Amino acid sequence: MKQNFCLNRNQDTPTASCSSEWRELSHQRKHNAIADALSTSSIFNEFSLKTLSNNGQDLYVDCSLPMQANERGGLLLDLEQFLAENVDQGLRVWFEVTADKSKLRNLRGVSPV
Fold first, then answer.
1. Which residue has the higher pLDDT, 110 or 77?
2. Ordered domains of the chain (ranges, CATH)
3. pTM for the whole thing?
């Protein structure tokens, strides 16, 4: 039997934007603030900041520990909440895109979009 999923009405909630103090910081100071917060956390110290977007809101992280696909989503949400509470409320966290490691897909010539 197919399950039907309904939206929980959170899709219309406006997202938080970065504070004016955060927007005024230099790119390097933003990068340092995020890296310092990650290194001081006992939970998220395995994450490293790879890229911070030019707008200073989107950041791409990498994790030194192997992680299952079903663990990543919840952990990213927890990390985003941690950074919102400790750095700035408008930050959005993404995993850095990695190359496809599937040898079968590579042999068939399938490339992700």
1. 77
2. 17-98 (3.30.300)
3. 0.72
